[in-house]
Amino acid sequence: MASAENPFYSTLRQSLNTHRLFSTVSSSYKGNGVIGIVRESYTKWERRVPLTPEQVRSLVKDHSYTVQIQPSNKRIFTNKEYEAAGAVVQDDLSEACLVLGVKQVEEDKLLPNKSYMFFSHTIKGQPENMSLLQSLLSSNIRLFDYECIKRPDGKRLVAFGKFAGIAGMINTFIGVGQQLLQSGYSTPFLNSPSSYMYRDLVAAKFGISSLGRDIANGGLPSSLEPLVFAFTGKGNVAEGAREVFELLPHKWIRRDELDELKKSEGPHDCVYGILVEQGDMVKLKSETMEEHLARKTHDVEHYRANPALYEAIFHEVIAPHLNVLVNGMYWDQRYPRLLTKSQVKDLYSANNDSFLCLADISCDIGGSVEFLEKSTTVEMPYFHYDPLSDTVSDIPMSEGISVMGVDILPSELPRESSKHFGDALMPLLHEIVGEGRGGEVGEELKNACITDDGQLSENFKYIDQLKRDYFNSQDKIDSQEDHLMLELDGHLFDSGLINHVLDLIESNQCKMEIVECNVGGVLGDTKKTTQAVLKVSNSSLSDGDLRAVAKKVEDLVELLPNAEAKIKVYGGGLEKKSTAKVTDLKQKQVLLLGSGKVAISFAEYIGRREDRKVVVCGNVEEEVRDVKGYAKHSEGVVFDVAGDKEKLKGLVEQSDVVVSLLPAPFHPMVGEMAIESGIDMCTASYVSDGIQELDGRLKEKGLKILNEVGLDPGMDHMSAMKIMDDIKARGGKISHFESVCGGLPAPEAANNPLMYKFSWSPMGVLTASQNDALFLRDGETVNIEGAELLNNARDLFSFPTMNLECLANRNSLVYKELYDIPDADTIFRGTIRFRGFSEQMYGIKQMGLLDDVRCEGGGEWKDVIAGMNVPTETRAFMDWLGVEKEGLMVSDRDSVVKSFCSLLEDRMTLGEAERDMVLMHHDIRGEFSDGRLEKHQSSLQVFGEGEGGMTAMCKTVGYTAAIGTEMILDGDIKDTGVLTPMDKGVYEKALDLLEEEGLVFEESCEVFDTTTTLEPQGFDFWEFHLNKGSKISCEPTSRDGCYFLMFRNKAKLNRWMEDEDSSSWFGSWDSKTWVKGTTGSGSSLHLSTSSSDSEIYVAIDNNYDHMFSTGSISCKISNKDYDLSHPSWTPPLQPTIYSPFIYAAADGDVKGEARVRWEGTIDYKVVGSKWLLPIWALWVVVVAAIKVWSSMTNNVSAAVKGASLITTPAAPGYAQVAVVEEPVFASIVPPSPSAPPK
């Protein structure tokens, strides 16, 4: 990527080489068995303690620790109780190796060189605590933060959510009682005290139970409507609140019971509760309210991952009926608010003022409930909010809402909270306090160590940037200021990613806040990820620059694969005082023509950005409404897109780009309008002649139409070109190209005899199965007529776990030029189906069901089938369709094929809950000049979501088209004219973006060394195993006299040798051919195994032309599956040579003699003066003289044991023996005289 060349990224890469996985806490903090406990000073209401007296007693008695505790008169436990437990009550804690607190310790009270444990509230870079953090570092304090101590399941070890829920619910009854009194009702709630007024939880529960008895005994006024308490959240907070609520007489109700309940008359002897589910808070924008309310289940994970696709509905379905909202949910700015000021104002304006009290136990200021504008205190837990005037008051009023937002609720139940606190801490203390321990701690503490040896630990170095920001400016991002939200999930700390992200944001002069940070680390055997949500802003940046910063962060994430991180960017612009979201980014309008299924993913992708508006056009109102709901900013226009050209033209003129997902014949018309309006266009269809004709005009105006950005065509082009361009760039050439693709039902949904489901028109599928096909295989052009296409399916093994087949897809030969692969001897594109599909369809074709002829009979299918011959292989499918049953009518009596399509669509459409599947596979081979052969495999497998989610076809087509459109809008595509995504500048980025959507090609490459140099010793031979379609070529690498042959059959070779000037060597076996050549003539020999798998044998005579010369042969094998760089076979019995067997004089007139002995059974026949060796397995060759065979002085007859053959050369020459198979033994005896050759 271009951004990777920035010096910042270069520095980053270097730093990663030495980055440690985790910081190791210092060994300087040695344990000495002394624990200190500080007095709390954070707030007067903080009466909790980290250890109860009973826990101190255990430490002192059972572990012989010393516990020193500073005296305090406000703790829930007295000083005397600690003294009785064995603690030393004193101010001086200097002896302690570990000091415990609950909340932040005062800076001037910190003791240097100690280990501390308390809630520091620094991990989000909270500005108010940055000075404290600096003091911790300056004092060389090792701080363990309770907030970061996690259990193996990732949940916090020290958590007080349940106690917050209990205390908050008790306090809720106070607000309910006071607000009802303002409305003229005296109720038992008015006598309910605050939770801190009870001695302990037992007393509190007894008091609430007493309140419940009063309600059950008729304590609620008869004119008072039924009181409905709505609870949000699923965690400990909500659990604690419900636990207290259920102490009252109560009934749990469902959403659909609210209307009837509110109509019921009093008096009511109980209160009512409703658990707010996701479906009560939000709905998909693409759904109508009726569709949403009819749903039985809701996908929580989808909502969390895609909040932009949802909109709030709580104000419509729950808020009009509730009296009390108990809010315990998590929320951040990625998600729709539970309730806004404008929504509650609308309720009150409509005289729906039953909403009495908000108890926001989560205490998220300006969060999920917008009118929680400030926190409240323990002694004054409520303020009053008037929705109509948007004002707050500390004085209760008769109209409006009492609002509670106490941020230290657990401190109101200090006794139980402290015990819970200490129980969690006790097992961890020994690692730090134990004598001589403390240098190395366990994973829970290591992950929670913020400062160590005067530095921030590796996990928390990011805070340093926030600390610097605090001391430099101390200004936070204004809640009304435009911003972006960056959501990061991964190993942010141990990889160093978070630190580099913050450096990058700072270097771009941006302000930043951490909205949420859940620290991971190593827990047990699991390495947990960290989730962080960052809020980034810079009011001085120019249009689009803020998003450019976010893009740099995205690039940075890609550069750190060891972080295994994911990033999501959310548009900025908070809701501002009951107004719509505002953004400074210039919005571009995308005109989307077509509202079918694939349009959903397109709209969702484009619609993520604040600076995009999607205008969806279609002629079906329900479809248009559904699609536009997936985009943040959208508009739907329902009209006859193909027929109302004036309206279409007007929409094109108003847009920045037009995307046509209409049928291909309409593209040229849309293209004409795009040219007239001066905008670019994008389609997922093949380039048609009509589109190609626009190329010149587009280039004249500097415009473009990007075509073929879907699945096939689209992703197939891009993934294949990526591989082929890489091979070419390294000097290779493409020798083999096969690409197959198919849309299928997922295996569990392939539950009919045809093993297919239709997600688009059956007519298209049936028509495609009858197209002519043309392709190249092993250098031969194959032409299959459409009538026989289904009868020519071949098995496909590219996805081994599935039983698949493949049909040739139209004319593959055009890709020789389109892909620039002139050297390929195989070019094939095919369609994937489950095995058996073609056989069934061929039977259907033979029956005549694909013919466009009139239906016979009285209009029932049984009448149509009665006149047809049903093949055996198709019988099960016909029975499954039920075409021979009574009463099944054809849909169109004028056409058999149209009626059959209608039947298939009715019986075999992919169900709403079923998943589809997309498969794609490339087999691409590249040859290189050094003899290497690379075999590349690339596979894509995508499943649909089922249950009404996106289909695999929707994702692969829609996301690809959307990415192409975004690249046009962002200026990433510079070329003009009619374009396809085969250019590197397009497909590289597009494939990267597709990966981010989970559309990933799995790639592999095998490398074969196809060239080997054979160095013969005398007369030698080799065997190679080649399969069908392979080739072997032999070329001399030396001109020093090699005579070489290649032949195919070892068992039946007739080998004949004659004078070189006459008919040369020749032979034949089973009508097959063999070839030969000599280095003297510079020959090259070639054989192909095009007909079947076979073996190739190479024989080389190294001394053919010159005595005492050497030579070699380079053998190059083009093989489909095997590495043939080394011979796989050699003779099982080598000849035994006792001495040199070639003699010659300098003047060339000395003759020699060679003697050959055999032991074994052989069979030779003499034909004239030549030898005929019919059995290659027992091949013996004696060569005498250079050009001719001499007459044999001794001829060996059949089945002779122990015989010898002696021959005397007629001219200077040599003798050779090659014995291939037992039980033959051979030796060569030197002739006399024994003078060695020169």
User: Helical segment tally?
Assistant: 33
Task: Report mean pLDDT, rounded to a whole number.
Answer: 76
Sheet having the most strands: 8 strands, mixed
Q: Can you tell me the overall shape?
A: globular
- Measured by DSSP, the beta-strand proportion falls in 15-25%
Counted beta strands: 56
Helical coverage, percent range = 25-40%
Spatially, the strands of the biggest sheet line up as 3-2-1-4-5-6-17-18
Note poorly predicted spans: 1-27, 470-479, 572-585, 1017-1021, 1038-1044, 1047-1095, 1100-1113, 1118-1238
Rg on CA atoms, Å: 42 Å
Distance between the termini: 68 Å
Helix/strand/pairing category: alpha/beta
Family: In the C-terminal section; belongs to the saccharopine dehydrogenase family.
InterPro entries: AASS (IPR051168), AlaDH/PNT_N (IPR007886), AlaDH/PNT_NAD(H)-bd (IPR007698), LOR/SDH_bifunc_enz_cons_dom (IPR007545), LOR/SDH_bifunc_enz_cons_dom_sf (IPR043009), NAD(P)-bd_dom_sf (IPR036291), Sacchrp_dh-like_C (IPR032095), Sacchrp_dh_NADP-bd (IPR005097)
Pathway: Amino-acid degradation; L-lysine degradation via saccharopine pathway; glutaryl-CoA from L-lysine: step 2/6; Amino-acid degradation; L-lysine degradation via saccharopine pathway; glutaryl-CoA from L-lysine: step 1/6
Pfam family, one: Sacchrp_dh_C
